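Researcher: For the record, we're logging two predictions in this thread. I'll number them. Prediction 1 follows.
Model: Prediction 1, sequence and structure:
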Amino acid sequence: MQIYLPIAEMPVDALVILLLGTGVGFLSGLFGVGGGFLMTPFLIFLGIPPAVAVGTQANQLVAASVSGVLAHWRRGNVDVKLGIVMLIGGALGSVVGVQLFALLKRLGQVDVAISLSYVFFLGTVGSLMLIESGRALLQRRATRPGQRKLHQHTLLHRLPFKTRFPRSRLYISALLPALIGFVGGLLVAIMGIGGGFLLVPAMIYLLGMPATLVAGTSLFQIIATTAIATFLHAVTNHTVDVVLGALLIAGGVIGAQFGTRLSMLLRGEQIRALLAALVVLVAVKLGLDLVLTPNTPYVVQTVAPGS
């Protein structure tokens, strides 16, 4: 069924968009990430303008994250105090990111900036995660549970404003989760992603959070961060397509529930390995699209007289 997207100014197949939302929502619940690192590139692959894909995807992330976090909340897998600290940093990052996005749009470089950002961040983080998760899977049999440590203390753990987070059994500087949230807010605003592919490993290896709490807490802070970014994009850049967002939300809410259930059946190393593989594949696809000659290298545009 073909429908017209008023902001993207193009027709799309509604069933394809619904299925895309369901699939990415499933991955969101499975990996504990917003799913934007897949949704935004897939929307671009379908021909949606990158600026609209980013603005609308931030809107879809709100619904997918709410659905996923409710499932984790029922299991007690959310550290609310730590999530609020991350949320404060995320809100500030969203404001800064939307202003930067607006500047790139005025310069006419926003589409290239979005693609390059994806290739760089996804390629780098995905490769590192793939190497780490592979080592963890290989060493799992040789290491007894009592020998493993969640994290190692570094100079970052000597920062001021030490705060106790009882749910995660942590005593760390509040600046650490706030900084992680700030980076996540920037990624939401500029790339249309929740930043879970970066937040999840940072929460595990920098903060030392228990793996069982990471997914739920990550989704908890993503909700407010993406809501702020969506509002600012709609007001400042006018890139939020409500029709497209509604279809993505409908599919995403359903898919997230099934993904959350499956996540309980997999080990942390397995989930990280699958997430890393997906991140790398998307980065490779976007990189190829930047360097390969498109099927239609030239576009003829009719300009009205006097415009």
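Researcher: Logged. Prediction 2.
Model: Prediction 2, sequence and structure:
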Amino acid sequence: MELEEVVFQIILNAGNAKSDCFEALKSAKDGDFKSAENYINKAEEEIIKAHNIQTSMLQKEANGDHQNVTLLLMHAEDHMMSAILAKDLITEMIDLYKLIYSGKGVK
């Protein structure tokens, strides 16, 4: 697979993950925590796919198969990191919504 194809796969998986995270947040805001959990799980699967591609590229690099670092590759890495951050932050926000809906409030 060409570098561009690999990079676009990372972008696709990361974009899917971020979309799933924001769907999870919307579900939590509506009080549908089962759906929120399902979306977060889907996001995690997409992040794992992107991470596996990245890991494969790192292993190739470590074995002497050097890739050119392109702006497109850096863009893909940015997408992956923002998807990971979105998942982490939105998971915390879902926990806050759970507290709000439980009537205990936020401490």
